[in-house]
């Protein structure tokens, strides 16, 4: 089971506020930057994909979400996770 995450506040990306939560050895600044970078890298076609956007690699991270899901999940091979929930 995943330990409860650390709320890191909101970032505004892709025209929506996104609440950031970090799990594992991730500081809030890195978590917020990761999600901001993900939304900046996401093309309109990827964002509108019927399968949901992603997976998109950003450095050692892989981010994506299911179709119609307001939650973007990012993870690394060593178990770190960042979640962003659009409001």
Overall geometry comes to globular
Give unreliable regions as ranges.
Answer: none
Q: How many helical stretches? A: 2
Strand arrangement across the biggest beta sheet: 1-2-6-5-4-3
Number of strands: 6
List the keywords.
single chain; 87 residues; alpha+beta; 6-stranded antiparallel β-sheet; 21% helix
Task: Give your account of this protein's structure.
With 87 residues, the protein is an alpha+beta fold. The protein has one domain. Helix content is 21%, strand content 39%. It has helices at 28-41, 44-47; strands at residues 6-13, 16-23, 56-58, 61-64, 71-75, 81-86. It has a six-stranded antiparallel β-sheet, covered by helices on one side. It is globular. It starts with 5 loop residues before the first strand and ends with a strand.
Topology:
Elements: E1 6-13, E2 16-23, H1 28-41, H2 44-47, E3 56-58, E4 61-64, E5 71-75, E6 81-86
Antiparallel strand pairs: 1-2, 2-6, 3-4, 4-5, 5-6
